[in-house]
Amino acid sequence: MKPIVVTGGAGYIGSQTCKELNRCGYLPVTVDNLVNGHQWAVKWGPFVNADLSDTDKLLSVFKQYKPLAVIHFAAFAYVGESIIDPGKYYLNNVAKTLNLLSVMKESGCDRVIFSSSCATYGNPEKSIIDESHRQDPVNPYGRSKLMVEKILGDFGQAYGLESVILRYFNAAGADPEGDIGEVHDPETHLIPLALSAATGGEPLKIFGTDYNTPDGTAIRDFIHVWDLSRAHCLALEFLLDGGKGDSFNLGTGSGNSVLEVIRAVERVSGREVKKIFAERRPGDPDMLVASAEKAHKKLGWKCNFLHLDAIIETAWKWHLKNLHQ
Ligand SMILES: NC(=O)c1ccc[n+]([C@@H]2O[C@H](COP(=O)([O-])OP(=O)(O)OC[C@H]3O[C@@H](n4cnc5c(N)ncnc54)[C@H](O)[C@@H]3O)[C@@H](O)[C@H]2O)c1
């Protein structure tokens, strides 16, 4: 099997991508320090418990497996925390990525797929965002992702590193076969919080009802984690076939408001989502919806999970399974 180093492969999106890589004939070698990941989620290839700052360990992984490419998920991803403690984000997401890239250079591995984010766009100037939209992030998390995008561009120019930058919108759902799913601690994502509120957990906090949207709550583009995993495999094939570095949005192309998500969770679970209303958070735009046309055209990617209820169905099954473990 063809080895691929997957940093953050014990996390939510990384572990789903390892499953898909394995299905496509690759050997996903997870490198993760488990700061936010779970060893139980590493099921489809070897696991190396390492921090991205551990140069010697990384070098030995590259020497042992001779990966064809790296898929780089490992990062901190809490927007609110990044505002309170930006140093933590720049160190982990930027400085440690630089270390990874140096190890790749030293080891002769010259292809990388990077997990970027719609947070790099900042406040949208139009309702549907394509890749040419101005990138002006409004929080340190988004800035850390944009910095890495720039670094990858410079490494491409100077050292011939080919990178595909994937800007995800809001990842959601769980493995359709129920093998893995979302477990973040603390959980900040809307759908798992709504599912938890529906099953006796804390009431769901709705941040802001005065957005410039039809129902006053913020609109986001929820993309199924399995669709994301497919996009990574297609991006990998694109790079391995000689494709040149590029960036792609990944989203469904349509948005749902917070209240629509709550209604969908109630429909799917058959239970009420207890909720409380709170002030809107700084730096939360009204609406973030992707145009993923470029990924459709250039990578041949298309979204399988287009309906919010179908996405929530998978998350609900995972939530029930975990509740009763
Ligand atoms: N979840 C989303 O909606 C979303 C949206 C846009 C972008 N992203 C990006 O996608 C990536 C994956 O997100 P996720 O939701 O799966 O997050 P996650 O926290 O579940 O996974 C990240 C993994 O990286 C590991 N990690 C972090 N720092 C590390 C380090 N220094 N060394 C080794 N391992 C380290 C963690 O232990 C964890 O397993 C992140 O880069 C995130 O910024 C996520």
Q: What's the tally of helices? A: 10
Please tell me the total number of domains. Answer: 2
Shape: globular
Task: Tell me the name of the CATH class of the largest domain.
Answer: Alpha Beta
Q: SSE string, helix = H, strand = E?
A: EHEEHEHHEEHEEHEEEHEEHEEHH
Average pLDDT confidence is 96
Q: Quickly give the structural class.
A: alpha/beta
Q: What ligand species are in this complex? A: nicotinamide-adenine-dinucleotide
Relative strand content: 15-25%
Distance between the termini: 33 Å
How much helix is in the residues? 40-55%
> Major sheet: order of its strands?
3-2-1-4-5-7-12
Radius of gyration: 19 Å
CATH superfamily membership of the largest domain: NAD(P)-binding Rossmann-like Domain
* Sheet with the most strands, sense and barrel status: 7 strands, parallel
Residue stretches low in confidence (pLDDT < 50, at least 5 long) are none
Count of distinct strands: 15
At CATH's second level, what is the architecture of the largest domain? 3-Layer(aba) Sandwich
